[in-house]
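An instance follows:
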Amino acid sequence: MSRLGRLKRRPEFLRVAARGRKVATPGLVLQALERRDSEIAPASAAEEPSAQVRVGFTASRKVGKAVERNRARRRLRAAVKEIFPIMARPGRDYVVIARRSTLKRAWPDLLADLRSALERVETSGRSDTERRRRRQSGRGGREAAARDGARKRTEA
């Protein structure tokens, strides 16, 4: 696989967060979104842009002060350099979000977290946005299960 591209602008991060899939692990949160050709900036890659994997890294103030946030992002960048060339799907944008435990997590565990998050985000059938919509419309989730259970009890 070629060199990984970077997500740098806020709208790119927001687009992945709003429309992509999300998987949380103890060491990180991974968001992924399949990119359409119309969403690619013209100068984003020297090679065929739609085949490139782009990655963005972020750490909120919950992770810690600036030094800790930078260390967490560095750890995530190193993990992505190791795992993504083997496992990431071309034509996708990924956002890797640091958690407080990113700093203290053992290196093999952090790599395992990234591997499992990448596998889960690629195999999950629905995006989180679709799940939220289904829950709000009353066709799924815990609320529906509780409602169905209550119906069965009243019918019996």
